[in-house]
Amino acid sequence: MPNMLWMQTGACSGDSMSLLTADGPSIEGLIRSGAIELLWHPSLTDAPSGYFATLVERIESGEQGLDILCIEGSIVTGPYGSGMFDSHRGRPKMQIVSALAARARTVVAVGTCAAFGGVHAAPPNPSDSIGLQYDHADPGGLLGEDWRAGDGRPVINLAGCPVHPLTITRTLSMLATGTPFELDFLNRPQVFFASTVHQGCTRNEYHEYDVEDREPGGKACMYFNLGCQGPSTLANCNGELWNNRSSKTRAGVPCFGCTSPDFPRDGDLFRTDKIGDVPVTLPLGVSRARYMAYKNLAKAAAPVRLIKREMEP
Ligand code: SF4
After folding, report:
1. 3-189 CATH fold
2. Looking at domain 195-313, which CATH architecture does it have?
3. Which of 32, 131, 278, 306 lies at 20 to 30 Å from 8 by C-alpha?
4. Up-side HSE of residue 208: CA atoms within 13 Å toward CB?
5. Residue ranges matching CATH 3.40.50.700 in the chain
């Protein structure tokens, strides 16, 4: 049975909260069924906090093996590269992470902060935060571009702020059972990041006909005015609903693009930046000239029921 150690660095615990809501499989199920042995999780382990330091010592010395290392949170390197803004018992956590990663069979970055730097690395980034193997979209981060874990893989990036609950537990389950899976161009498991948030959104028909909401609380598409990044964000939020019932767009909130390396965008998340009346960021793979032609035609063909918002989203 593979063991797992979950460590928090510069984190808000959002990914741990997400982990606890997963139900297919749940983390309890993985532990109870014997699929995973939990060595440490800061909120779930009932051992005193001193046990963590002992565990780290034993792993570093080789006395204790480590199969899956999960890191939740940005890697804080400030001030001046010392990492002392985020320390444990006087030791910078970035040093502890490097030491554990060197011993781990597999390393998983849980959440966009651990993967790319995320919220703490947003401008002006006073804590000099980075991700485990990326600094935003640039390969490198704490461990370096060429670093590989014991299993030969780079850090597996489970992006999201927080990451989708099922993305965490299904990845852990695949690792525990040795099920092979591919990583995408940002080292995210392709199976969870192969479609855009836009796919499966209940506002899709409004988008097709360019029927736009200008204020929050409406039924129509939020791409043109309210900052929705669904068409350019790879994530499964509208394919695997959160708590089996909802997603940001279903709740009337635009997609903020939280699985992307440049999250959070430096600007108003509820406003669409545009050139003329066309958004600056177009749906993935769409050319501006064709989009402009399509948009005007689509708007002219919009059904009255959509313009009147008579169709339930
Ligand atoms: S609200 Fe966002 S995700 Fe939904 S259809 Fe519009 S652009 Fe796509």
Report:
1. Rossmann fold (3.40.50)
2. Irregular (4.10)
3. 32
4. 11
5. 3-189
Closest CA to 72 of 108, 110, 107: 110
Q: How far apart are CA 200 and CA 194, in angstroms?
A: 13
Residue nearest to atom 7 of ligand 1 (CA): 223
Ligand 1 centroid distance, CA of 162 (Å)? 20
What is the 121 CA–ligand 1 centroid distance (Å)?
Answer: 27
How do the pLDDT tens digits run along the chain, 313 residues long?
Answer: 999 999 999 999 999 999 999 999 999 999 999 999 999 999 999 998 799 999 999 999 999 999 999 999 999 999 999 999 999 999 999 999 999 999 999 999 999 999 999 999 999 999 999 999 999 999 999 999 999 999 999 999 999 999 999 999 999 999 999 999 999 999 999 999 999 999 999 999 999 999 989 999 999 999 999 999 999 999 999 999 999 999 999 999 999 999 999 999 989 999 999 988 889 999 999 998 888 888 888 888 999 989 988 765 4
For residue 155, the CA-to-ligand 1 centroid distance in Å is 31
Q: What residue's CA is closest to ligand 1, atom 5?
A: 204
Q: How far apart are CA 37 and CA 5, in angstroms?
A: 9
Nearest to 42 by CA among 117, 96, 120, 104: 96
Residues of the chain with CATH 4.10.480.10: 195-313
Ligand 1 first shell, C-beta below 6 A: 197-198, 201, 203-204, 207, 221-223, 228, 230-231, 249, 255
Establish whether the linkage from the previous residue to 139 is cis, with ω within 30° of 0.
no
Pocket test for ligand 1, best of 195, 201, 225, 270 (most atoms within 8 A of CB): 201
How remote is the CA of residue 98 from the centroid of ligand 1, in Å? 40
Supply φ then ψ for residue 25, to 5 degrees.
Answer: -85, 170
